Amino acid sequence: MGTWSQLHPEGRHIYYEGTDPDGFAEQIKAEFDFDPRNDPQWGVHDSFGFHCPGEHLDAIYGGGFDRYPVVTASVLGRRSA
User: What is the pTM of this model?
Assistant: First the structure.
């Protein structure tokens, strides 16, 4: 099995699940030079979804929930079921 960036080289839509969305967005902007708040899905219906570029998936999505509390839409669906 490959890394997240190998599996999704085009990137993936993920959701921030923590308690400080603005702090998270600022940290991502500082570390990775993109702002999740620019995604049209950020903040819609109290949800903080954004497209994560493929080159940053391993660090953000694959880096562990403790550092960046993000999930995919498929995980969100299973949680609400």
Answer: 0.80
